[in-house]
Amino acid sequence: MYLPAFLFDIFCSRVAREFITGSLSSPDTYAKKYSEEVGDEYSPVSEALYVGAATEIVQFLSEIEAGEDAVYYLDCFAYNRLYFSNMNVERKMKPMFGSILDPDKEEEYKADITVKNFKAFVFNLRSDPGKKAPTGWEITEEEHLEKFKELFEKTVSVLDGL
Fold it and tell me: Is the dihedral of CA 69, 71, 74, 76 positive or negative?
């Protein structure tokens, strides 16, 4: 059973965010954290997929000279991927059967699609500020992602990459 694509997008944005705000010189260790922890519940996701998407996202943020807004863009993207199934279609947070976090039957996530979605989102956000996350929104306090709270808060060190 596979990780839902929106969760993959959120985790890639978190890898990029933690890399930007962290002290390590590579996103590899941050990606390893998500690859290992998520693998307990879903089919394993290659660490390389997280690294590839996060690296391209960070490069894009550099190209548009996001500066201090980089973390803002990443947080807004994570918020929107959680609450919207498409750009303007709200996700049903409490489906009739199961949960939004239930595994998918087929692998629907791809690093290049995540990067494409992120780029489109940033350009959309710049023209429509209504897409921003609510003031004070923190993914670590998100009730719909409660089971990943420890994962989001877990710190990594250079030794974790070994």
Answer: negative
Q: Is the Cβ–Cβ distance between 37 and 136 less than 8 Å?
A: no
pLDDT of residue 15: 97
Amino acid identity for residue 32 in this structure: K
Total-model pTM: 0.93
- Cα–Cα separations (whole angstroms), residue 140 to 8, 120, 127, 136: 16, 25, 27, 11
CA distance 100 to 118: 21
Residue (of 33, 133, 32) closest to 73 by Cα position: 133
E-strand ranges in 22-156 read 84-86, 89-90
Domains in the chain: boundaries: 5-161
pLDDT band at 57 (very low <50, low <70, confident <90, very high): very high
Residue 81 neighbours by CB distance under 10 Å: 24
Under 8 Å between Cβ of 17 and 75: yes
Phi, psi of 102 (to 5 degrees): -60, 145
Q: Are 81 and 118 in contact (CB under 8 A)?
A: no
pLDDT tens for each residue of 88-105: 788 888 777 888 999 899
